[in-house]
Design a protein that fits this description.
Length: about 260
Amino acid sequence: TQGDKLVLAERQGPVLVLTLNRPKALNALSSPLFEQLNGEFAKAQVDDDVRAVVLTGGEKNFAAGADIKEMKDKTFAESYKADFLGSWQKITEFTKPVVGAVNGYALGGGCELAMMCDILLCSSTATFGQPEITLGILPGAGGTQRLTHLIGKARAMDLVLTGRFIKAEEAEKIGLVSRLVPGTGKEVVDEAIKVATQIAGFGGVAVQAAKEAVNAASELPLAEGLRLERRLFHGMFATKDQKEGMAAFAEKRKAEFSHL
Ligand code: CO8
């Protein structure tokens, strides 16, 4: 119904924790949910006090995909004209670090959303998959592209063409997730908040540049990527955080970054 909070936003110091909140539908990603999620990211982008984001579906499931009931009667003309799913991209334009925490299902659009996170943690309850083929469609938000960059063609083809689900251990082994965290619910969310808090304590300019440079690796030819990396690196010498970070090292004390 209108006015439902489909995304819960909670501040934990410099970290914004966003929790998808449609538990009865296993957090199926409806258009209203995505609008709210984009809205939260847009606010976080311009809020200087937010230094990192944790994205999770909570203790049960991350997201079982785009909302199939909402999609089932769509026509080509409708989805093409409205650029259906085009706005999902907005999250990838967010310049601060995003740490994902996955319990339970991360399927279809849910797996694609998880892959948009910069660092992805999962618990042993996590199940990933791109089951679109079983619905008569193909992935539409990165499941053929980001997934292939992450795990390679052989494995991406296997998942995309068979729609089979993989468990946490396999996801970790093939490099779909950054870390498999012990526990079956809250632990992975707590760990994500810990990781995000750690990153939030580093210099914000360097963090943003590091994210930009790593992301460029899947867009640019090597020579261009290396050039971008070097230019960003040179730029760090214009920041207060570089002076502070290196002075603190020389003086054997902890750096106090000002994100300037
Ligand atoms: N959409 C809508 N509702 C969903 C979805 C979904 N993706 N997933 C689960 N639900 C609903 C169920 O309908 C059910 O609702 P109700 O209680 O009203 O019947 C409720 O959530 C609980 O689900 P189940 O009873 O099915 O729970 P089970 O534990 O039996 O099964 C599964 C869990 C295996 C996860 C099962 O729910 C399932 O297979 N879900 C669908 C998974 C899927 O196919 N995801 C991919 C969707 S397509 C997609 O994401 C494409 C994105 C890009 C689109 C590109 C278009 C251009």
